[in-house]
Amino acid sequence: MTRSLTEWIGATPDTAIPARVRVRVFERFGGICQETGRKIAAGEAWDCDHTIALINGGEHREGNLRPVLRAAHRAKTKDDVAQKAKTARVRKKHLGLAKAKCPLPGSKASRWKRKISGETVRRDE
Q1: Per residue in 101-117, pLDDT tens?
Q2: Number of Cβ within a 10 Å radius of residue 83
Q3: Can you list the domains of the chain with their CATH numbers?
Q4: What residues form DSSP beta bridges with 67?
Q5: pLDDT tens per residue across span 14-42
Q6: 48 neighbors 54 (Cβ within 8 angstroms)
Q7: Alpha-carbon Rg of the chain, whole angstroms?
Q8: CA nearest 40: which of 61, 25, 18?
Q9: Using an 8 Å Cβ cutoff, are 69 and 36 in contact?
Q10: What are the residue ranges of helices labelled H in the chain?
Q11: Does an H or E element contain 47, and which?
C-alpha cells in the first residue's frame, strides 16, 4: 500500500520548487517535454513550467506544473508576458486610462492650437 502525498503549494510565487517536487512532476509526465512532445534526455536542461502562468492568474502549486525544455520554456514565458501586456492594454483602454499615441491635431491633447485669427501656435507658449 502506497502512502498518498499531499500536493505541494508554494508559500509565495517566489518560493523555489523543491527537488522532490520536480522529480514528481517529471515522473507524472513520463519525462516528456510538454511543449515539444519529445523525451527529455539525461543531463538536458529543463524547467518546471506553470501551465497557467502566474502573471495570468495561475497558482504556484504542484498541479499547475509540467516539465518543459529550457528553450521552449523561455519561448512560452515570452508569449505569456505578451498576453498579459495585451490584456493590460485592453483593460486600460476600456477603463479610459490609456492616452492616444498621436492625438488629433488641434485637440486639447495635442501640442498645437489654432487661434481665432487662424494662427497656429504651440500650447506651451
Answers
A1: 777 777 777 888 888 89
A2: 13
A3: 19-98 (1.10.30)
A4: 48
A5: 999 999 999 999 999 999 999 999 999 99
A6: no
A7: 25
A8: 25
A9: yes
A10: 19-28, 70-94
A11: strand 46-50
